[in-house]
Write a structure and sequence with these properties.
The chain has 601 residues and is of the alpha+beta class. The protein folds into three domains: 142 residues, Creatinase/prolidase N-terminal domain (Creatine Amidinohydrolase, Chain A, domain 1); 136 residues, Creatine Amidinohydrolase, Chain A, domain 1 (3-Layer(aba) Sandwich); 295 residues, Creatine Amidinohydrolase (Alpha-Beta Complex), CATH 3.90.230.10. The chain is built from 19 helices and 28 strands. A six-stranded mixed beta sheet has the order 4-3-2-1-5-6, sandwiched between helices. Strands 12-11-10-8-13-14 form a six-stranded mixed beta sheet. It is globular, with a radius of gyration of 25 Å.
Length: 601
């Protein structure tokens, strides 16, 4: 009989830990590739606790347990996870390693799965537990897998090719560049385990993880230009194998760990931020000399080719029409009080499907009515589903995966029929002003994203308010919707020197927001492209942003009196561009709505 309650599942885990002589265990939301979004088989945290966010972890001891989430999920975790079973902890203020050290009894053996954690996490936790008289123990098999009776199998879906015309570079060219880098660093090989890096290097995609078109696999690249691709048998069609050629040896994914012993006596690199502790353990146990570098695919993947830039613009044209059709529908149906969060998200997905070539959503749509919009990464479910009430704020953050681009857009809409309150308009306009300021900014080459973050917050700060998330994240090209190393956010404490400068060709989001707990949320998000800028009389090289997203921003919520002439000019130019691109794709009432939505203010 399957365990239906999370209390029963926690009890079963504790019984399994007792059988293994473990006093505790750590459960992250992760997979063997440290992915942000994971396959159904790896959703161990959600199965155990009910938590549906995209980041979090749990520490389980015999008589207590705690769940650790960041500020995005402060409200959500309380809605989804039973406070009688788990203490709520907020990171980075609360450290799981510290909590374990404080609460584990002396002599306790605390288990962790080395295929789900970084080496640095394990080192920190081990040191803190040892100081407290306890021990961190790597398990050979995950105990949750032993008690999760209906755990799904990893996806068996085949990998498929990403057209070289869309990628802009051949896989052979990418592998050759990495081989040259290995020679320059006097390294014999590199282990690449991040799924989007593997996909980018090989010009392949997959459907093994919802919302991210990747294939579960590992890649090792050697200084002689050859590579080994470890993927489950039956997942590589003949056309994929033929495109990769003889220089890529296709091997069973189950052989990956043992294969790391083939680096015995050689120098091999792996990225400590993107490879799990077990990879380093296997390399060292096999006699390799291990050195650490950033995954060599990360930066070139972030700097998009001309083909990828052109493809993204094409995807945005279709996506803009889909979102505009949805916003028109919402303007009609929303004030009637018959739309709820689930039906709105379903309608938006249907609009994207109707525009052609949608392969998946790029993440689960954040469809937040009223108070739910104040939950930054809200995930609607049957239990939380709310009606979009007349005269309320609705926030929808969504995106699509197309072969030529990955989109991500947030629009905040006033559901009429009455006019919005003055405070809502004030907050919305301050968010808008920050969005426009960042969109218009020029900056010298070498600028870090953290140096631009304040631009988007300044008008909120004037009113004594802020938002607890970054202003911008990198975006992949028919890959991960959240991509590094580029970002626009407050500096990470003590890590400023490791930040990535913004380079021409990078995609980022521009998404300031404001969230009034228990009332509403506001966010305005467009994607932008870093591009070179020519300024008369300028000294040095300068950059700016091209706004890529094309869909109307709700003018009903704007307090025009708070906008400068430059901001009004940006608004009008942006909406003229939206109308130019989107209008030819719409007809009838939707076109009439777009005409009105894009009128100058």
């Amino acid at each position: 009989m399957l365990m239906q309650t999370h209390e029963a599942r926690l009890s079963a885990l504790r019984e399994e830990l007792s059988r293994r002589d473990l006093a505790g265990f750590v459960v992250p939301l992760s997979d063997e590739h440290l992915s942000e979004y994971v396959g159904a088989y790896a959703q161990r945290l959600a199965w155990l606790t009910g938590f549906g966010g995209s980041a979090g972890s749990v520490a389980v001891l015999k008589d207590k347990a705690a769940i650790f989430v960041d500020g995005r999920y402060t409200l959500q975790v309380r809605d989804q996870v039973d406070g009688k079973l788990y203490e709520y902890k907020s990171v980075p203020e609360d450290s799981m390693a510290d909590w374990l050290a404080q609460n584990a009894p002396k002599g306790a053996r605390i288990g962790f799965d080395p295929w789900l954690h970084t080496r640095s996490w394990a080192k920190d936790a081990r040191e803190k537990l040892e100081k407290a008289g306890a021990q961190l123990v790597a398990v050979a098999a995950n105990p949750i897998d032993a008690v999760w009776q209906d755990q799904p199998e990893p996806s068996a879906a085949p990998a498929f090719l990403q057209d070289e015309a869309l990628a802009g570079r051949s896989s052979a060219d990418k592998r050759g560049a990495i081989a040259e880098w290995l020679k320059a660093e006097s390294v014999d090989g590199v282990v690449i385990s991040a799924l989007d890096s593997v996909a980018w290097v090989l010009n392949i995609r997959g459907s093994d993880v919802e919302r991210t078109p990747v294939a579960l696999s590992y890649l090792t690249i050697h200084a002689d230009g050859t590579a080994d691709w470890f993927i489950a048998p039956g997942k590589v069609p003949a056309d994929v194998a033929a495109a990769l050629g003889n220089a890529v040896r296709i091997r069973d994914r189950a052989q990956f760990e043992a294969s790391l012993g083939e680096f015995s006596g050689k120098t091999v690199s792996s990225d400590p931020a993107r490879s799990v502790a077990a990879i380093f353990d296997a390399l060292e146990a096999g006699g390799a000399k291990v050195v650490t570098h950033t995954d060599p695919a990360v930066l070139p993947k972030a700097v998009k080719t001309k083909a990828e830039q052109d493809g993204h613009r094409a995807a945005q044209r279709r996506d803009g029409a889909a979102v505009s059709n949805f916003l028109h529908w919402l303007s009609v149906e929303g004030p009637r009080g018959t739309v709820d969060e689930l039906s709105a998200a379903a309608r938006l997905q249907a609009c994207r499907e109707a525009c052609g070539d949608l392969r998946d959503l790029s993440f689960d749509t954040i469809s937040g009515a009223g108070p739910n919009g104040a939950i930054v990464h809200y995930r609607v479910s049957e239990e939380t589903n709310c009606t979009l009430e007349p005269n309320s704020v609705y926030l929808v953050d969504s995106g699509g995966q197309y072969p030529d681009g990955t989109t991500d857009i947030t629009r905040t809409v006033w559901i009429g029929p009455d006019a919005p309150p003055a405070q809502v308009k004030d907050r919305y306009t301050r968010v808008l002003k920050g969005h426009i300021c960042l969109a218009m900014q020029t900056f010298p080459k070498g600028t870090l994203g953290s140096q631009l973050d304040t631009l988007a917050r300044q008008y909120l700060w004037e009113a004594g308010i802020d938002y607890a998330h970054g202003t911008g994240h990198g975006v992949g090209s028919f890959l991960a919707v959240h991509e590094g190393p580029q970002r626009i956010a407050k500096p990470r404490g003590g890590q400023a020197g490791g930040e990535q400068e913004l380079l021409p060709g990078m995609f980022l989001s521009n998404e300031p927001g404001y969230y009034k707990t228990g009332a509403y949320g506001i966010r305005i998000e467009n994607l932008v492209l870093v591009e070179e800028r020519r300024i008369d009389g300028a000294e040095g090289d300068w950059l700016g942003f091209e706004t890529l997203t094309l869909a109307p921003i709700d003018a009903t919520l704007v307090d025009r009196a708070l906008l400068s002439e430059a901001e009004i000019a940006w608004w009008n130019a942006y909406h003229a561009r939206v109308h130019e691109v989107v209008a030819p794709q719409l007809t009838g009432e939707a076109l009439a709505w777009l005409d009105a939505a894009c009128r100058p203010i």
